[in-house]
Fold these 2 entries.
Entry 1:
Amino acid sequence: MSKVIKLNVIDRPKSDYTGGPSSLCPGCGHDQISGVIIQACWENGIEPSRIAKMSGIGCSSKTPAYFLGQSHGFNTVHGRMPSVTTGANMVNKDLVYLGVSGDGDSASIGIGQFIHAIRRNLNMVYIIENNGVYGLTKGQYSATVEKGSKKRKGAPNEQPPIDMCKLAINLGCGFVARSFSGAKKQLTSLMKAALSHNGMAVIDVISPCVTFANNDESYKSYGYVKTQSEELHGVDYIHHFQPMNEVDIPEGGFEDVELFDGSVLRLETLSTEYDYTDPTAAIAALHAAEVDKKHITGLLHHNTDMPTADEDQGLVDTPLCDLSEDMLRPSKERHEEIMARFRA
Amino acid sequence: MCIPEMDVSINDFVINVATANGTGSQSSNLILLNSMFEMGVPVSGKNLFPSNISGLPTWYIIRASDQGYQAPGDKTDIQVLMNADTWFKDIEKVESGSVIIFNENVKLPVERDDCLVFGLPMTKLARGINPKMAKMIANMYYVGVIQHLIGIDQVALEKAVNRQFKGKKSAVEVNLRAIEEGRKMAEEGITWDSPHAVEARQKKEGTFLIDGNEAAALGSIYGGVNMLSWYPITPSSSLAEGIIHWLPQLRETEDGMSTCAVVQAEDELAAAGMVLGAGWAGGRGMTCTSGPGISLMSEFIGLAYFAEVPGVIWDVNRVGPSTGLPTRTQQGDLNLLREASHGDTEHIVLIPGTVEECFEFGWRAFDYAERFQTLVFGFSDLDLGMNNWVCSGFEYPDEPIDRGKVVRSAEQMAAIENYGRYRDVDGDGIPYRTLPGSGLDPILYRGTGHDEDGIYSEDPEVYQKLMMRLKRKLFNARKHLPSPVIREETQKDVGIIYMGSMENSIQEIDDIIEETGLKVSQCRVRAVPLHPDIEAFIERHNRVIVLEINRDGQLYGVLRKELPINLVPKISSVAYSDGMPPRARIYADLILEVLKEGAQ
């Protein structure tokens, strides 16, 4: 009996979405996130050639080699992935831009580009694989490490953290979520929703560094996150191509977030109500969690108010990289007119 | 007065206007320049402005020269005094017998019995026309005085005023009235004969005045730029603004949709990153900046070199190091551009010397970038970029757009034997590439070591082979780049190798040296890596001077590095930079000094 290979909505097996073998430390949270990226892109039925994998420098930024082997990618320079993605997006707005960065890459050297990409509402998914340390240079603290958190070696960190979600919400980002590399179901739903969003979608994923900061005193260790995090809501992603009658209706309260491509992110109420449309409520919740030394996860904020960076440009429909010479160079007749105007 | 009788010099004098910036003197100065240009008088204008918006000293130098000399002259013949702050220094510099025109309302003395002096209460008169605009209109009075003095034709003047105020009726009227008042008062008040005059010449058919930045902007548009990223910096901002100005007219569809994105970046690093992103995705990305921006972009420049991503960066050079003299000119960035970024890197640098070449290299830069899959620099400077130059018109590109070795279909891919993103299948050092979205042989571009298929590699042999191919690729490029412009004497005494905006002073320098009896040939370098013709030029001449506007002789350094060792003793460096556009006398004297020292 032959083995049945499961295909997605565009008739592709999951193996079309995998990449090369990972060279990260065994158990690294980043590998779990790579798995989720593969799963989400496959389940969403995105043509691999339409995806552009973008990254900066660091452990996280190496991962595009480990997923989506049939997609082009650019492993750029430290902290500058957003600008390269901006340039690419301007000349080819039809691609799905999937950026992978880390807390060193995004919260320190690249924080300016992170901020400005959000300000422009660059149409991309921006994943921060956040472990609070610089892994590739052997475990120095990064700017997202919480006050009082302690990595495996050395003194506890005394400086307040930069919360990338708070920052993104403050800047008006239209899709901001936080998750945990070990929360596969939640992360997959959020990842799929981010891919369905039109505009900047930031997912800050707590992703423990098993080598340098997986001790219990580290607030981003597996043990700490498992006991000290709280889900804002249950999340369930419903594809736009999935008939609604096939979807289970939750028993408790729920709210549907309608996404750009027609898909839905269903938020199931857990203990308390959470208003994802109110940015100030999100900031308050993040602040309270920081005071309590807890992590909150889920869809923190969603709005669709802003045009994307490429929509803002008023560009022709055809991606600029595909334009032919007659669209790129003014005609000889036009040239003569311009020269005559100068000579008048 | 004890002024000796003298001949009237026709179309051979220098006007220096001293004002404060923010007073609108740019308009009056351009009216003077343009009205003389309309008469067919060969003129050039240099704006010496401060890094400031309002209140600091500014000078504008206009040189009329039938010989076509465009460098600022050695001395001032007509000095206009409008600025109290520089008043006495400006007076001190004026040579005996010169003309001084001044604004009486500044209320400072002009004690020069040895000069031809005329003052008007310009601010007060301007107040009579329009009190609110008096500061601006006051400048028009010296235009009127000079019109009378040197005999500027009224039709030409009116045309220049109309052009300056874009035909806006009220502005044209007010300013013409002030100019006329000034002229009439000069007619009545000036008792001496002017030693300088203009005489109409046949205006060269089809010529107009334009600055290099606008020329490069237009060239870029004809080159099919798809993405302009930029961060404001003097003196390059007007290049970006030129593109933004022309895009709606030249690069939009009938329904107003654009074929070029414009992003004002958060800094130069981001601007460079966007250029790489656009090039990686198969578009034509560019940015423009000045030296400080190039310093910031250097990391990305190395990535573009190593990952072989096309892109265009214009450097409109200002005076370094550091913030330097932000509004003065220099050729001090050549070394930086040639080898920007860490490790072994080298880049193609195109060096226009005229506004026509700013246009031409504007479009060619993209073709070179995609042909050689690397960054290409346009290397201009403040003098060429921001001053007005006579232009004979831009020639329409004589070659179709060259997209380089891009594989766009499976059939094309199948025809390539043993494809690899970084494999030199043609033996010219240039590999083929595929674009994101095509589905053809996707790879993860990277700044880390990579093998011929683009896979991460630290293998010693793989790295060394890759670096040697990159070297070969750029070495092969040199014969495709713009060849030098050579003006050669039959008697090969002295050859001068120079570049860029020195073009505007070279003929005067040449003439000064030839007064000593030596014959001077000229060779203007228009690209690095160096074209083989330059080597041959050196071989043919007894002595070769490498002349440039910087302290260290950067072009000389490039030549020393790239020339065969036996030719190196033949070349000598003459490098000088004080922030000013090159004055011929200074450079000619330095050359003569070096020649006197004999062969080194």
Note: Residues 102 and 299 of chain A are 20 Å apart (CA to CA).
Entry 2:
Amino acid sequence: MNWQLLPQFAITGILNGGPVALIALGIVLIFKSSEIFNFAHGQMLLIGTMSTWWFAAEEGMGLPLWLAVICAMGVSVLLGLLIERVTLRPMTGQPLLSIILMTLALGQVLQGLTILTFGTTQRNFPVFFSITDPYKLSLPFQYNGNPIVVILRQNLVWTFVIAIICVVVLWLFFQFTHTGLSMRATAEDHETAQSVGIRINRVFGISWAIAGLIATIGGILIATASGLDLSLSIVALIAFPAVLLGGLESIPGAVIGGLLIGLVQGLVALPTNDFFLGPAVAQAIRNSTEIVPYIILLIVLVIRPDGLFGQKRIERI
Amino acid sequence: MLKINNIEVIYSDVVLVLRGISLEVNQGQIVALLGANGAGKTTTLKAISGLLLREDGAVTRGGIEFEGQMLGSMQPEEITRSGIVQVLEGRRLFRHLSVEENLITGALFRNASNRVIKQDLEEVYDYFPPLREYRHRTSGYLSGGEQQMVVIGRALMAKPKLMLLDEPSVGLAPLLVQNIFEIIQRINQEAGVAILLVEQNANVALQIAETAYVMETGRIVMDGPSDQLAENADIKEFYLGLTQVGERKSYRDVKHYKRRKRWLG
């Protein structure tokens, strides 16, 4: 084990988890308001990010970057509203499973539409932050007499900061605005919400619009780091274990789930060839970045079926 | 104010639940709707509030008129916005929200300013003083009586013209029932809210109601001013549990079956 790199990998991992947390939040949002697990979230993210590229790129509209981002956010809000209005509202009252399977189909359709519109080539996504000039963070610890310095790409730090700001803004929105309150009320009980005069269809629409919006932000944050092609919708799948890990209904759960998954993915890079189980195992662990979130997920769900922060059902006996 | 004209309600296109109900609630009145389990009281309320639509029920005949406007197939949230608020049976709170948040949800559709909402909250706390103390608690952990206060308070926050109360006495201790019903009466008198009260506890309901209707198997079998109904021999026996004291009673005299039959006629 290369202990000197532990803080480096841990911090990088957590920072990588920021966008994951944001994407996970979008899934939680829709699940909370309508009990639908949105399998099309990755594709919503892909479309939002692709349109950002299109608005900004020379081959597309060639808009300044900030304007491109705003336009793409508009597109994703419209997409969210459209999905809710056209595909989900007519399904109201149908068994939940059919609706959930429909989101799966919807994901494939959106993926196909993206291929038709934008093609399959890898795109150069605009880079927001300087790549050449990383931040150096000296920790107040020493290892074998050497001070521990963590090197962080600017990009990584700022995507994390933006993701966390979005999460906080959303939380404030839920906690302190009337729209947020009507969303939380609808999440608990549709019939009672209607009986107090909340227009629940509008609440669903808002949920999908916000989910589309934050999916796009999450997608942009990921794409600035790793480039943009169709696999982005698969990359976003990493948010699924984050959601389940945290508990489907919990906003703090989604955030902690996202960060935890980032952390674990960072830490698996740690074992070196002097690992106590031998070099072969070390190699296997290093290669397991993609599956380790799901392994953790399995373990957590076996111990706590509602996830780490799943809503405790309030039952009075 | 509210006029129900001979409505028929069918669930899932086959189950006939209400067979011609007519009733009327006037401005500022408390009207009680009595009857045993399964008589169709809750269905009547849901027909008014529109929540029937959620359960695959439909009004297939007759009409419901509120302040001169036919409610027809309006969505429940729109009916609430027009001034009819239903307090659902079984103390349906938003359990994970605090007491105050629950109350505020009742006022959301009015787009009122925070200042107005604060005033309305104070008004509700004046009716239900214990809620002021528990305002920041998670409502799901309150006792049954306090939860009933929250749901009635939440309905009050909507500034309704008509409140539909579905069995507010269920599962509460007698003293609390008395307390809640006194507050219902105060709400009626002070805020001028008309109330349609569904109850199995005929005793308390008849005390505060002006007029009352008795339902059986989807029909109204009796109606009138509540003091007259309270004197009615059948009501006394079936709903108030009163018989002449000190006399032995043979089952032949009760003729329970026959007398019910007569109502149905």
Note: The interface with chain B takes residues 93, 178, 181-182, 184-185, 188-200, 311, 314, 316 of chain A (CB under 8 Å).
